[in-house]
Write a structure and sequence with these properties.
This protein is an alpha+beta fold. The chain is built from six helices and nine strands, in the order ββββααααββββααβ. The protein has a domain of 121 residues: Intergrase catalytic core (hpI Integrase, Chain A, Orthogonal Bundle).
Length: 180
């Protein structure tokens, strides 16, 4: 008959161990690691041809929001959480999109100035003047129409780029969008 005892494992956690004859065997099945089969560590940046093919496909689909979001993410190189917290007032003043904008980083509390390119300004102007954006405080509001003033979260942002790359038949685990 097997003898059961509690033992401290290498990770410092208590484990229920069954003693059968010569070797101790853990009785509970260990779960598979969350990163099994995934590429761990730093990943390659998107190539220029991939960036342009994503832009072209979004233009062809006439997807104003995603195209403006993608261009803004590539051009300004802000962290994802800063990008989704941009308000309309951060980039839009006096009836037009600003050439340069400044936001305060949440992580370092330092102001970051970035330039908005001409094509991104045109796309932002189209997006801000879209009827869907009337009365919105944030530049990228949530698509759930529960509250027009809720901002898009970074998890939703993470979900956008894999959708773009899946359409291009890229391996989604082998790239990353660079941020400062």
């Amino acid at each position: 008959m097997a003898d059961r005892r509690l033992r401290v494992g290498r990770d410092g956690l208590l484990r229920l161990v069954r003693r059968t004859g010569e070797a101790a065997v853990p009785s509970a099945r260990s779960a598979a690691p969350w990163n099994k089969g995934r590429i761990v560590g730093q990943k390659r940046p998107l190539l220029l041809k991939h960036v342009w093919s994503i832009r072209v496909r979004l233009e062809m689909a006439d997807n104003k929001r995603d195209l403006a979001l993608f261009n803004m993410a590539i051009d300004c190189k802000l962290r994802g959480r800063i990008l989704v917290r941009l308000t309309v007032n951060d980039v839009y003043a006096a009836g037009r999109v600003k050439e340069r904008a400044s936001v305060t980083q949440g992580k370092t509390r330092k102001p970051v100035r970035f330039e908005i390119t001409e094509t991104t300004r045109l796309l932002l102007d189209r997006w801000i003047n879209d009827p869907e954006m009337i009365g919105c405080e944030y530049l990228w509001p949530t698509r759930l129409h529960i509250s027009r003033h809720r901002l898009c979260c970074t998890n939703r942002l993470k979900g956008r780029v894999p959708l773009f790359t899946d359409r291009l038949i890229l391996r989604p685990l082998s790239w990353v969008c660079r941020a400062r």
